[in-house]
């Protein structure tokens, strides 16, 4: 049952010549500027083993707070951390990437959403392109682009 204040939006745009359609329902009626959140270039590109990433995401979800926030620190290695709401329990796991280009970056995602995206990736590796911690990450797989919106990190 939809709330009285729900709105729906359809947005069509192109990224590198590929048409992207975003269909969103926003329950609090706040206007989301998807064009502003969608990267037009990437400053950080990382390729990870999909199965390893899936395992780490599932483990982190056991510790994550109510919004399943997981923080990825991408530098020489990838470090995934998640904390419960009281900050009394923490998951922290470090794993190697297969390839990395660009700047180091800390970015936070809803692990539940990321888990669903990874379940639909058919290849053994996942390439994630990111610009900043406030713009969507792009997960690429053989002609398919998936946007994963970040959860903004506290300053």
Radius of gyration: 16 Å
Q: How many DSSP-defined strands?
A: 11
* Helix percentage: 10-25%
Described by strand count, sense and barrel closure, the largest sheet is: 5 strands, antiparallel
Shape: globular
The helix-and-strand class reads alpha+beta
Which segments are poorly predicted (pLDDT under 50) over 5 or more consecutive residues?
Answer: 1-6
> Which sequence of SSEs, written as H and E, runs from N to C?
EEHEHEEEEEHEEE
Summarize model confidence as the mean pLDDT: 81
- What is the count of DSSP helices, taking H or I runs of 4+ residues? 3
Please list the strands of the largest sheet in the order they lie side by side: 7-3-9-10-11
Task: Report strand %.
Answer: 35-45%
Instruction: Calculate the terminal CA-CA distance, rounded to whole Å.
Output: 36 Å
Mind sketching the topology for me?
Elements: E1 7-15, E2 18-26, H1 34-37, E3 44-49, H2 50-61, E4 69-74, E5 78-83, E6 90-95, E7 99-102, E8 105-110, H3 111-119, E9 125-130, E10 137-141, E11 144-148
Overview of this protein structure:
The protein has 155 residues and is α+β, with helices and mostly antiparallel strands. 16% of the residues lie in helices and 44% in strands. It has three helices and eleven strands. It has helices spanning 34-37, 50-61, 111-119; strands at residues 7-15, 18-26, 44-49, 69-74, 78-83, 90-95, 99-102, 105-110, 125-130, 137-141, 144-148. It has a five-stranded antiparallel β-sheet with strand order 7-3-9-10-11. It starts with 6 loop residues before the first strand and ends in a 7-residue tail after the last strand.
